[in-house]
Amino acid sequence: MVMKHVKLSLVVCLLTAVAVFALPPRAAADESPGAVFVMTNAASGNQVLSFARLRDGSLIPESAFATGGNGSGGTIDPLQSQGSLILSSHHRLLFAVNAGSNSVSSFRVDGAHLTLVDTTPSGGPFPKAIAVAGNLVYVLNGGAANNVSGFWVAGDGRLIPIPHSTRNLSAAASSPTSLTFSPNGRFLVVTENATNKIDVFGVQLNGELSDAVVNASAGAAPFAALFAPNGTLIVANASDSISSYILQYNQTLVTVSNALPTLGQATCWEVIAPDGNIVYAVSAASSNISGYTIARDGSLAAIDSTIVGISPSGSTDLDTGISADGRYVYTLYAGTGAIGRFIVARDGTLISLGQQDGLPASAGLNGLAAY
Question: Minimal CB count within 10 Å: which of 79, 136, 247, 268?
Fold first, then answer.
């Protein structure tokens, strides 16, 4: 029954629909302290749609920026990943995968305005996720090879491939779904959804990776992995649970919170508050958000009754992001072509602020980044 439930969850982790992206005038810079970006993943020409974020959490469409590559297309979470669109820590660079043309793109960020800097081969077939640590970038390629490949980021944002950086995962059909760097940049973690494994690579001074240490996942079907600022590794599992770990220097993981239930269906994405005190997990099939506090020892505790935010039925929440000040959470409504907007209450629960409509859901939307 567990495996059947996991397979159903993974199928639902793959859903979307249709709309039109309107482009009103740019918001004044002093009114826009941040931005939200969404990737169309269109097979006929991938684009990043940008929105200026106002101080009340509302969004104003900025423009559509071509990545210089092609997405995979599709309709329901076709990339099956977290991190297909990701900002650098200083919010000055944005990186996007082009699964249909086996490439990755980098943009300079100026408020909600983007300037394409580079589009280069990703180092493998079907790139689906990206991780950034300082001037080091690794791309997760989910095609037949199932590998990761590294790049240095030049001062102007160009991507420079690192020779001999490509490393295969534990199996050729592992269905990798996310990758993330530890806060100190010394380790790279990759989730393998099909094998219930979590690979941990050591990062060397030349940017190459050590051999992976393969760890068993505490929860079935690990999907999204992120590190909290205190070093706790938190993994959202598509089996509708969430787990936390402490990473040892020998690349092994010690489970802290085993597999806490999310009370959602198809839990596949997560975001950690900037202060590191809360993690939110998004469930696509049930269109809701679960919330947990993060203790100093890495343990997780459900906030309120676990479900802290509810989206309209049929929204099919996919990727998620949080504003740099930690006040607003955004989720990608792939089922209706919209962005869900929430404000974070003092107790960590989420209050809906409505949604930003007008996204082309038929393109196979994947990827949301915010600051």
Answer: 136
List the CATH number of the domain containing 362. Answer: 2.130.10.10
Q: Which of 11, 9, 3, 15 is nearest to 314 (CA)?
A: 15
C-beta of residue 256 within 8 angstroms of C-beta of residue 212: no
Among candidates 82, 67, 200, which has minimal Cα distance to 131? 82
Query: DSSP of 302-359, one letter per residue?
Result: EEEEEEEEEPPTT--EEEEEE-TTS-EEEEEETTTTEEEEEEE-TTS-EEEEEEEE--
Collapse the DSSP code of 44 into the 3-class scheme (helix H, G, I; strand E, B; otherwise coil) and give the result: coil
Q: How many domains does the chain have?
A: 1
User: pLDDT per position in the chain (371 positions), as tens?
Assistant: 333 344 434 444 433 333 333 334 444 444 679 999 999 999 999 999 999 999 999 999 999 999 999 999 998 899 999 999 999 999 999 999 999 999 999 999 999 999 999 999 999 999 999 999 999 999 999 998 799 999 999 999 999 999 999 999 998 889 999 999 999 999 999 999 999 999 999 999 999 999 999 999 999 999 999 999 999 999 999 999 999 999 999 999 999 999 999 999 999 999 999 999 999 999 999 999 999 999 999 999 999 999 999 999 999 999 999 999 999 999 999 999 999 999 999 999 999 999 999 998 877 999 999 99
What is the extent of the structural domain holding 45? Answer: 2-370
Distances (CA, A) of 44 to 67, 178, 215: 11, 25, 38
